[in-house]
Amino acid sequence: MAWPLLRTRAWRPPILRAVERVGDAANPQPWQYAFSADGETIFEARRDGVALWSASEVAAGRARRVALLPASSDYASWGAKLDARGQRLVYSRGEELGVAQILSASLVEKRLGGEGPFYIAVEADGRRALVAPQGGASYPRLWDLERGVEIARLDTDAAGAFVSLAFSPDGRRALTGSHERIVVWDLSTPTPRALIAFTGSTYGSFAPDGRLLAFASGRRTVAISDVETGFGHDLDLGHEGAFIWKAIDLGDGRHMLGLGSQELVVLDLVRERVVSHHPYPAGEDIGFPVATASPDGRGVVVGGRKGELFWLDLAPE
Asked: d(Cα 53, Cα 222) in Å, to the nearest integer?
């Protein structure tokens, strides 16, 4: 799906709006968002389960929670992640690792293993998950969610404290980040193989083609590097303090949205430049944000550490 802005002759900068939450007293920190296939529902993974929101209401700036599919008990911090269409949730609770099917009115949970709590990344199609203990000397592990079994271990020379995990869009690669070091892995063989490592950053994101990697390389720069050659360059964000934790695909194969604690930044991977900056209202610092673009490419839902909710309109009238 092409980004609507690219189909108009008169380019209009995206507009960031705060969204008022209605009927959600808990106001917890979101850990991930996903859109339903038709784009009408937003799924929000958080400590008490999965909240459902109307995408049209979020885009309009005032949203009432449609439903809450409660967890049987609270999940661990950052311990619940969704697949790309909100059909499957992988969770960490205490030492437990589990998977839940998301039904219309409930979560059906199933225990997979222990030795948690875990950081988690879920493949877009929900078939596999990458998990790593939150602290301790251990290694990231790859799970087959359909069979409920561990299928591989990512043997790295730096065990423990893997706080950044991600799959490439096609699922052929993964990344792990720890101790200011990002490692890219080849998952196309039964035994995952380390392809390349980048130092100086812990958090990274795959570009839409799975070959380019975006990661913060300083207080005002984002590095765009080729995971096959290691060649890369820095994009200057224009001012100090704009540290970008990660980036997401905007759906057109060309642009990514950098997520910072104080602003959002639209990156053009073709022209190798920053397109626009979008500070949060009133200069808010929302911590480690999470975001997902809508299937039609018209907007992005963004959440912050205190339950802040924003909509980035990519096709303003």
From this structure: 32
User: One-letter amino acid identity for 62?
Assistant: R
First CA to last CA across the chain, in angstroms?
19
Domain borders along the chain are 65-242
Query: What pLDDT was estimated at residue 241?
Result: 61
* Residues 24, 116: Cα–Cα separation, whole Å: 29
Q: Quick check: pTM over 0.70?
A: yes
The CA distance from 53 to 66, in Å, is: 5
Q: Among 3.40.50.300, 2.130.10.10, 2.40.10.220, 3.40.50.2000, name the CATH number for the domain at 65-242.
A: 2.130.10.10
Position 6 scores a pLDDT of 45
| Encoded amino acid at 246, one letter | K
Sheet of 204-206, strand order: 204-206, 212-216, 221-226, 232-236
Token readout for 50 is 């999965």
The set of residues, in sequence order, having a beta carbon less than 8 Å from that of 317 and lying 6+ positions away, is: none
Per-residue pLDDT, 11: 59
For position 92, what pLDDT does the model report? 94
Q: Mean pLDDT, 10 residues at a time, over the chain (317 residues)?
A: 44 87 80 94 95 96 93 90 94 92 92 86 95 79 94 76 87 89 91 90 87 80 88 82 81 88 90 90 86 93 93 88
Cis (ω within 30 of 0) for the bond into 208? no
Number of Cβ atoms within 10 Å of the Cβ of 156: 19
